[in-house]
């Protein structure tokens, strides 16, 4: 089943490949430390080929929640369009951060495409599925943590995608690039961090729109995770 932001979403996205280098211009030149800055000129390298083999894990491989001290960790998403810096909320979402750190160390996301961009109704870029289909998962699942009761997700929010099953959090996550409200029925969506630098990359990808021209689909400007690194 596809990992969706909205429980009603059932369509499967088809990743559209596009090689070469493209440049898109965002709204402003710098991003602030809060992850709420505007966009800048974006230059992307040709995205890598999707992984041929995707590793899956057993439920028993789910790592133990991280300690609450330190309360936050730092991480970097290295993409073909530049680096995106993250702050991870270890104290507020210990299981989610533990899984994110584990998958990063395993190289689970290496060369995987961000397969879904939404530009109508909700404003997110969804990544974390090495298969590029929107239905891939690491083989284990876990529950919701730190979901906002009001369903409000501000720009720069880093949160988990899931199916209708509240225990289906796994490897797919999304970055919010504009104020977004998501359903709270079923428990909402786990917020486990925020963008601290590089939000302008996501904004510029969003400005380029989807490959289909619709409000929900594969990004017209392909963006892939080359590597994910978590620091203390």
TrEMBL record:
Known catalytic reactions: [protein]-peptidylproline (omega=180) = [protein]-peptidylproline (omega=0)
Entry-linked PROSITE patterns: CSA_PPIASE_2 (PS50072), PROKAR_LIPOPROTEIN (PS51257)
Domain of life according to the entry: Bacteria
Positions in coiled-coil regions: none
Uppermost EC category: isomerase
EC number: 5.2.1.8
PPIase cyclophilin-type domain mapped to chain residues: 82-230
Segment forming the signal sequence: 1-19
Record SUPFAM superfamilies: Cyclophilin-like
Residue ranges, annotated region (Disordered): 25-65
Keyword Isomerase belongs to the record: yes
Keywords (A to Z) from UniProt: Isomerase, Rotamase, Signal
InterPro entries with a match to the protein in the record: Cyclophilin-like_dom_sf, Cyclophilin-type_PPIase_dom, Cyclophilin_A-like
GO molecular function terms attached to this record: peptidyl-prolyl cis-trans isomerase activity
Isomerase listed as a keyword: yes
CDD domains in alphabetical order: cyclophilin
Family of this protein: Belongs to the cyclophilin-type PPIase family.
Purpose of the protein: PPIases accelerate the folding of proteins. It catalyzes the cis-trans isomerization of proline imidic peptide bonds in oligopeptides.
Protein name according to UniProt: Peptidyl-prolyl cis-trans isomerase
Organism: Serinicoccus hydrothermalis
Lineage: Bacteria, Bacillati, Actinomycetota, Actinomycetes, Micrococcales
């Amino acid at each position: 089943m596809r990992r969706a932001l909205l429980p009603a979403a059932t369509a499967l996205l088809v990743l559209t490949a596009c090689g070469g280098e493209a440049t898109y211009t965002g709204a402003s030149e710098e991003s602030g430390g809060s992850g709420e800055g505007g966009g800048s000129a974006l230059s992307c390298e040709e995205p890598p080929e999707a992984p041929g083999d995707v590793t899956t894990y057993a439920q028993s491989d789910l790592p133990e929640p991280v300690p609450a001290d330190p309360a936050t960790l730092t991480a970097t998403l290295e993409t073909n369009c530049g680096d995106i810096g993250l702050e991870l909320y270890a104290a507020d979402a210990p299981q989610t951060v533990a899984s994110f750190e584990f998958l990063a160390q395993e190289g689970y996301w290496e060369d995987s495409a961000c397969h879904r961009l939404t530009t109508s109704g909700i404003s997110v870029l969804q990544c974390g599925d090495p298969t590029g289909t929107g239905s891939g998962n690491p083989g284990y699942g876990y529950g919701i943590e730190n979901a906002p009761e009001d369903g409000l997700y501000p720009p720069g929010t880093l949160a988990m995608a899931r199916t209708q099953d509240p225990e289906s959090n796994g490897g797919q996550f999304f970055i919010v690039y504009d104020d977004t409200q998501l359903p709270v029925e079923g428990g909402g969506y786990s917020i486990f961090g925020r963008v601290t630098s590089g939000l302008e990359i996501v904004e510029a990808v969003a400005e380029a729109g989807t490959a289909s021209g619709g409000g929900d689909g594969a990004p017209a400007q392909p963006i892939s995770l080359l590597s994910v690194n978590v620091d203390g």
